[in-house]
Write a structure and sequence with these properties.
single chain; 0% strand; mainly alpha
Length: 206
């Protein structure tokens, strides 16, 4: 099986897991739990749809059972936030709900729109992608994903979900971005593009 099968299955089952936590801890009246289900649950469904329509080729690699267990175990760290919210009956104030949902929405835009731009552009013409959402960031999809996870992790109002996110950024995202930079360096125009763009965060100034 491929890596994407285990990634997709984990993300797709997330809304079921959150609902199970809400049931186990009887959190049906917890607005924060519902907000978490709406954001992380929606993201899981959107990820599966994206994978089926314009998925990332890097997840097409074959995957052993052992590595699949690592994938599932690692991604399960993202379930710390809903467990905290439901087990401790965390009730985020209105301004936190608004801020987190806004951050999540912005993240969905950057993540999915940039991946769609990459998919469509590269299907028509191979080469270095340097316009649109990719003009100021070499990884706007990762930037969007960071906003997504920061959005629904913030609902727990606890440091643990952000620690898990930081571990992923340092152990998986940054190495992947640097690996891609090394691959793209074969294009003559890459150095100029690199100078005017950020690795993940969009560069606002020229």
């Amino acid at each position: 099986m491929k890596q994407k099968h285990f990634i997709d299955s984990h993300k797709g089952v997330t809304p079921i897991v959150v609902l199970a936590m809400m049931y186990w801890y009887n959190q049906w009246e917890n607005v924060t739990a519902w907000a978490y289900l709406a954001t992380h649950g929606t993201y899981g469904v959107l990820w599966v749809l994206k994978s089926q329509t314009f998925g990332d080729k890097q997840w097409e690699q074959p995957c052993s059972v052992g590595y699949a267990a690592v994938i599932w175990g690692s991604l399960s760290l993202y379930w710390i936030a809903p467990w905290l919210i439901t087990s401790q009956s965390i009730q985020a104030p209105g301004w936190v709900l608004g801020l987190c949902c806004t951050t999540f929405g912005l993240g969905v835009f950057f993540h999915f729109v940039s991946d769609m731009q990459k998919h469509v552009t590269l299907s028509l013409k191979k080469g270095l992608l340097t316009d649109g959402l990719w003009s100021r960031s070499r990884n706007p999809n990762y930037f969007g994903e960071l906003l997504i996870y920061a959005g629904f992790s913030g609902l727990a109002m606890h440091w643990a979900p952000f620690l898990a996110l930081g571990l992923f950024v340092c152990a998986v995202w940054i190495p992947n971005m640097l690996k891609k930079d090394r691959s793209l360096s074969r294009y003559p125009e890459f150095e100029a593009y690199k100078a005017r763009s950020g690795l993940m965060f969009p560069r606002l100034l020229p």
